[in-house]
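[step 3/7] fold_predict: job queued, chain A
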Amino acid sequence: MIRRFLALLFVSGLAAPLAWGQGLGNLTELGSEVLINNVGGVDLDPETGVVVYQKSVRIAYQGTEIFADEATYHTQEGLVRVRGNVVIYRDGDVFAGEEATYYLETDDLDGSRLRTLYAQGDGTLFFKAKDFRSNTADLSLIENQQATLTTHDSRNPNWRIESREIDILNDSELGEVDRIILRNSWIYAGDQKIFWLPYASIQPDSQLGYRVLPGYQSEWGAFLLNSYGQLLGRDRHTLARYELDLRQERGLAGGVEFTSMRWRGQDEIGRLYLYYADDGDPAQTTASTSRSPVPDRERYRVNLQHRIYLKGHDDEYSQSPEGDGIILSRRGEPRDDSLFLDIDLNLLSDDFFYEDFFQSEAQTDPRPDNLIQLVKRYPQGTFTLLGRFHINDFYQTDQRLPEIAFDFTRQPLFESGLFYDGSTSLGYYEEQLGDFTEETRRRRIEFLESQPSTVENLNELTALQNSLLTPSFFRFDSFHQLSRPTTFFGWLNLLPKIGARATSYTGVNGLASEDEFRFLFNAGIDASTKFSRRYPGIISRAFGLDGLLHVFAPYVNFSYLAGEDFSEDYPAIDRLTPVTFLRPLDAGQFTAVDQIRDWSLLRLGFHNRFHTKRDGRSFRWLEVNNYLQAFLNDPEEDRDFSNFFTELRWRPVPWGSFALDSQLPLLDDPSNFTEINSSANWMPTDNLSFSLGYNYLSGHPVFANGNRISLLAYRRLSDEWGVGIREIIELEEGTLELQQYSLYRDLTSWTAALGVVIRDNQRDELNYGLALTLSLKGFPGATAPVNFEPSGLAQ
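[step 4/7] structure written:
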């Protein structure tokens, strides 16, 4: 917008005092909006039509101010020129140079030795040019000759790009730099040329431009990972990221990832990722066991995640910058976000692909799902039509072809004071064994059949043979529940519940194949109250206390469920999985539909909350939740009491916090175990920060014992240097599982880091990794040819 205002500024600013001059035409109409002052005189040459303002000229127009040593208006040529120490202020932006010229008829603005800056996000790009040209009527393009770019705010920057020609393209809607095009450019480190660019396009986005990561990792050898990002489409609706990776031990790989950018900041999913690797050593593994079978050399991934709003968006249309057509802008909300189609498809070449090439995804989502679902949201609940597919044969999963479900949120039932919630589903379900799982079981069966017929061998053989009979059935399930919130004596809150569940199985295949119908009845009650007391005299700056309010809230939850149980041989797909936490008490939240058993459960607990005042509002300083569950009728084991649970969250100050989740076997029960998960984050000084975690598990009937400490720390040694450390120690095995050491160097406008990673994966030898990163910190979107980010190495 600066150039547009300069056009009006130069014209109207000189028109006010020169209204009597020849050739000014109708420019006098803007005179009342302009303020122009100067220390010297005003000269007019009637023959040439030149008017000159002398000495310290100041022109102000609608928030824009321009200062110069001299201003000249050439009436016959139709241009205005300012000279000498030119400084332009507009909306916080500053432009400085030696000379600027504005052409009235063409709206062109020329300048020489211009210096300015562009603020983009959290960074700043400093710019100067010997000559520049811009058309103020079309702010999308600024052309520069012999220009310099840098992010170092210094007269002598430690790095810069010098280019013969630079075009700056602006996004007029967002008011930001959209793209910078460089022609015939050199990158300098200090005064030393280090890289020549015949042509480059820099886009101010951390995901755009060229990025490279060199390093070393034991399974890969030396590697060089390259990616280039750019926006596609006339309305830049898609981010494309092209990858070309070279790994010494694994060979050449590459791919492309397309990400939708149409609706930034919203929750739509839009992603297509294609990646292929010609693996030179597919038998290589990070685990302690060998692979069987060994994957083929040709390995790949295809991932598609997308959300489609079926009623569309309110699209906005505008003229393209080139003036040759209409472009689509889709940044608004969808017309109706209650009806949409979700697609989540993930095709992999083998079970070990993520482990070998994408370690972070192997840890967070090692067996990705494959589903398509249609969702319609109502104020009363949600309708879902779901299809789940068995695309990757090496994974064990269940197919739902399809499943129709209605979920009703808790809502008033007319004006009766009652509340209703429930769910109903209908579908065809089929479990599929992974190829590796099935093959392993068949080999074990062959081995047992060749052995003597002992009781142990026969039991194992029967169990393995039964496990190969994959279950399938049609299932109709419907759950309905009524509740009524009630308060007694003004302080006792009660929520009684009563409900029923009906489940029908037909077309059953498996170890048992009879059709079945089951009816379940459930009832329960939640009771709670609270007491509070204020302590205004408790004040501590060190612990962030400005008075204290203690809220004590005891509660009791009782849940009862009864009905007909199926035999152990009856097939189940939605079944229980081993966990360390307690199952939900509400029958409507219990998702293991095929393995529901009678229960009678009583949970006793109490909340302690401590509030203080912070920034004029109530702040939850400390929260502790303790509870214990009694099994009057245990649906899973023969337990009498659960562990004693503690959930603690403490946030005393902005620079420190502590969290604890623990369960301890306070009562004598052989099925109980011990679990502790804690974390602390602290920044005791401006130069030191650390995070400490502790995870302990002992005596669980399914999961292996664990005793792990994790440490993450950063120490700022000086204004230029810093060190970081990350350690994971497994005390149960006496193993230092992960060591990561980083050395950071502040290069004023750049940050350099050298990282070393050592992993102990319980193999014969350690796994090593080395990575070098170099990134711009002042303007992270301006990616030079060297901009490293070790995305997977530090996982």
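[step 5/7] annotate
Helices lie at 2-15, 353-357, 359-364, 435-449, 455-467.
The chain has a mean pLDDT of 79.
exit 0
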